[in-house]
Design goal:
Strand order of the largest sheet: 1-2
Number of helices: 13
Shape: globular
Strand content: 5-15%
Helix content: 40-55%
Structural class: mainly alpha
Distance between the termini: 30 Å
Number of strands: 8
Radius of gyration: 20 Å
Order of helices and strands: HEEHHHHHHHEEHHHEEHEEH
Largest sheet: 2 strands, antiparallel
């Protein structure tokens, strides 16, 4: 029997409205959700109004050449396109201009990026840019974009690090650097892009081999950065670090004198989602322990472990990870239950800033780390998170 595609499996999970809960023994189990499967009508209307304001604001920011924000990084155009298309905007002219710009960044090997005017670590960020651009082009659709996405998939598959070291299975900034390196942020966006565009492989011409990642190696990489239980401190167990030798949240020394990495919110949700993309079952201890960490550290006031840094990236990946888990209700460590979709919608609607001249809305982070001082980037993150929460 042919195996069902992962995208179908995730859709079925969402449709069933399942939920996680704590058993009397403390284990995480999958149960039928008793909470409403979606935000209530009034809250949903607020979310749609915020999305409408955000999409209109983004459309106002588009450059005449079709790009948004910094033209050196086409991902900063791909994210608005993705958000606008997902939000149901009818502005085809804006989308067409953006697609034309993205296509101008395509290289012969299928990668989609530009050489930045100012040199930086990671070069042209070919992995980030290619991954996000292929998702945006796939979301737009059209027969003329099929070969572009297929070539981008082949480039991404060829960029997976498969050396015999701690980075095996992951993705780094730029394979052209020739150095073994992979981190979870680069890895998650590549895994997501390959899953969200996988059905385009069915459109390959006869004799053209399919392109895909080594998902077994992907599991190996994720295993190296997920924090294991400690004999003396399990507060970080189940969460994720940034890569095998670093956590952006730092380290701590446990009672046994061992130096261990701290888990933090954005990477834990990225790790949880990546495990699901890598076809690790929900009953698997790796998924359950990541989910446990997330519920024990639930908050929308900060990116747990990082404060305001990367806050909107956190909201964005949180929405996708929890949706992929196929549940709406969370049981928190104090025993209370919440509907995460409703909570996230309330938070993002409340954080939207309104332009007094136009009445349109945007988001921006006062903490500028990881480019979150750019309102185009942050608005795109927020719109995508709201769109996921509504669905």
């Amino acid at each position: 029997m042919k195996k069902a595609p992962l995208t179908l499996i995730l859709w079925v999970s969402l449709s069933l409205g399942a939920a996680w809960a704590q058993s009397p023994t403390g284990a995480t189990v999958l149960v039928k959700s008793e909470d409403p499967a979606a935000a209530n009508r009034s809250l949903a209307n607020e979310a749609r109004a915020a999305i409408d304001r955000g999409v209109k604001w983004l459309l106002e920011q588009q450059n005449a050449e079709g790009h948004w924000s910094n033209p050196d990084f086409p991902a900063l155009t791909a994210l608005p396109v993705w958000a606008i298309v997902q939000g149901g905007s009818p502005d085809q002219e804006a989308v067409d201009k953006a697609v034309k710009y993205i296509l101008s960044c395509v290289h012969e090997d299928g990668s989609i990026w530009r050489e930045p005017k100012e040199k930086q670590k990671g070069g042209g960020l070919s992995n980030y840019n290619t991954a996000l651009c292929m998702v945006a082009l796939h979301a737009v659709g059209g027969a003329e974009l099929v070969p572009v996405v297929q070539k981008a998939r082949r480039f991404t598959a060829g960029s997976q690090h498969l050396g015999a070291d701690d980075y095996r299975g992951g993705m780094g900034y730029d394979p052209e650097t020739g150095r073994p390196y992979a981190d979870l942020s680069n890895t998650y966006v590549a895994y997501e892009a390959m899953r969200l565009t996988e059905n385009i492989e069915d459109l390959r011409k006869s004799g053209d081999p399919r392109a895909d990642l080594d998902w077994k190696a992907a599991q190996e990489f994720l295993d190296k950065i997920q924090q294991k239980p400690s004999a003396t401190n399990d507060d970080n167990a189940g969460g994720f670090a940034y890569h095998p030798s670093e956590s952006k949240a730092g380290t701590y020394t446990n009672e046994a004198g061992e130096i261990r990495f701290r888990s933090y919110g954005s990477m834990t949700y990225a790790g949880l989602l990546s495990l699901i993309y890598a076809e690790v079952g929900k009953e698997d201890g790796r998924v359950q322990s990541a989910f446990d960490w997330a519920t024990k550290h639930w908050t929308l006031e900060e990116n747990p472990g990082m404060g305001a840094e990367g806050l909107y990236y956190f909201y964005n990946v949180l929405s996708k990870a929890l949706a992929a888990c196929g549940q709406d209700a969370l049981t928190l460590k104090d025993g209370s239950r919440i509907n995460w979709r409703n909570e996230l919608i309330r938070k993002l609607v409340g954080l939207q800033k309104i332009d007094p001249k136009t009445g349109n809305g945007y988001w921006v982070n006062e903490s500028g780390r990881w480019w979150e001082a750019d309102p185009v980037l942050v608005t795109s993150y927020s719109l995508l998170a709201l769109e996921v929460a509504l669905k």
